[in-house]
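Throughout this chapter, every protein is written as a compact record of paired, labelled lines. An example of such a record is reproduced below:
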Amino acid sequence: MKSSHLFAVTTLAVLVSAGAHAEDAVAPEHTPAFQGSRTGAEVMAEAVLAARNRSNEPAGSRVAMPVQSSLDRAAVRAQAAEAVRLGQIPSGERGAI
């Protein structure tokens, strides 16, 4: 019987202590209030300007125009094959490092 009373008193003490600490965390009396340097009108003007300049277009949604080249596919392939033959471009097992 004594152990159950001791457990109940200990539990009650822990709850009261936790409540006191929670009250200090919510509204500490020794912490000064934050004082901003800007007026409410300045903040409102900035918010209105940001709303006006807002774009509904997602970032990166524009696609660049394709590059116009004067080379044809066959010429580029021939140049690549020549570069491989001359060893300027590695290929095969030796080339993969």
Observations:
- The longest helix spans residues 2-26.
- The chain has a mean pLDDT of 79.
- The chain has four helices and no strands.
